[in-house]
Q: What sequence folds into this?
DNA sequence: CTCCTCTTGTGAATAATTTCACAATCTCAA
DNA sequence: TTGAGATTGTGAAATTATTCACAAGAGGAG
């Protein structure tokens, strides 16, 4: 009696997944332009990778193209959505209604990627209440109740560094299994919880380093 | 007659530089706690890398530690500032005074990294004028003049995708040699111009992928 | 149906990055 | 001054990621 075969057992470079959003957006654009078929050459050029890297990246998830022809835009788009978990809406709750939290809450780019900010949380009672029609700032104590009610899956941590560990623990207690952490600290969480770190200054300091090195200050 | 020897000829992994901001912040903290000496073991633990990776990363820039003792916090901090080009202030101009641009302009974390936002630029005349005591939104046409006057080095592109290429060209014409691009497009620029791409959704889509894969949606 | 052209999919080769393991050498104590 | 204990710095090994190069189809023309 055959077991259900595991979805995918292949391992692939971590960087592969980080290129998928690029592919997704390129394909979205081709779709808008009513282009039905695209070659790895063409698409790779557009996103700035080599054609063989694009093909290799896709190959980890099956034979998604048509030999001799290219990739079917609509089909590949659907596959990539599936791979990135965008085939269903992901609901985010932002903890920390400071400047960073509010900016993220208002970011218009989430929608096209199947992401949705449904609530903010803060300890500061002065911030509690509706932000606009869609969005309310809740007391931090409502984390578990609202997660349940709104179906939140991802907790976004935009709190000061000193608070981050404590808040992460609250989020885990409240049932979150995925944290997107903007605070510049490593978090201690149970192994089943996934943490993604975001460090906004890395990019600009990389630039600064190149300026220093290339132009000697 | 000896030529001036080139500052550094070693090549190192690109990821090395992206770990330096982590080291920088850990060291800053040790400094505040009046810890004068720290081992690679201790510091690596704190930032979440292996001790040998930390030592290797630092070794590309010379022998920065003391065998048998560890790293001198103040000395290493100074060195890392130098490597990241933080030994002098870097001045940023943000092009695109939309939500993202304004959020970055108000980000309080830049200061401790030697970064300073000195101006915003926009085509929309409704946005022109002072934002607060420190900061003004200028017409895009003033890009070159203000870059010169304020000593701006890095242009931050927070404009819509469709505008990004054109705006990049304006920035290059205005004399910028470093672009930090938040628009999800690859930019065509002359080879001497450095572009750093920032893609805010990569992190959260990575989470989404892990959710889909680990918990099967 | 066959041939020719095109482009994918993928093992193998190459390149890049990380980890290992230990010699070098510093500190401190007696 | 010497020896014990600690921790760096770094070639070499191991691992991971990218690129190459070509066989395996797919599609279209005749």
A:
């Amino acid at each position: 009696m055959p077991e259900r075969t595991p979805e995918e057992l292949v391992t692939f470079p971590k960087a592969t997944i980080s290129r998928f959003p690029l592919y997704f957006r390129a394909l979205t654009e081709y779709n808008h332009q009513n282009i039905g078929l695209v070659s790895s050459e063409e698409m790779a050029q557009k996103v700035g990778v080599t054609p063989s890297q694009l093909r290799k990246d896709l190959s980890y998830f099956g034979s998604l193209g048509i030999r001799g022809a290219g990739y079917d835009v609509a089909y590949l788009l659907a596959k990539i959505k599936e791979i990135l978990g965008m085939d269903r809406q992901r609901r985010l709750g932002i903890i920390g209604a400071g400047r960073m939290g509010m900016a993220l809450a208002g970011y218009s780019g989430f929608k096209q990627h199947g992401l949705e900010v449904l609530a903010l949380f803060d300890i500061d009672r002065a911030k509690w209440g509706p932000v606009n029609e869609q969005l309310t700032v809740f007391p931090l104590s409502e984390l578990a109740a609202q997660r349940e009610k709104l179906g939140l899956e991802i907790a976004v941590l935009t709190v000061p560094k000193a608070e981050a560990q404590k808040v992460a623990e609250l989020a885990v207690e409240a049932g979150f299994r995925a944290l997107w952490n903007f605070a510049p600290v490593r978090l201690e969480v149970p192994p089943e919880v996934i943490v993604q770190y975001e460090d906004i200054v890395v990019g600009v300091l990389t630039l600064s380093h190149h300026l220093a090195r290339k132009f000697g200050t």
Notes: The beta strands of chain A are 37-38, 71-72, 90-95, 115-122, 129-130, 136-139, 154-157, 178-181, 194-197.
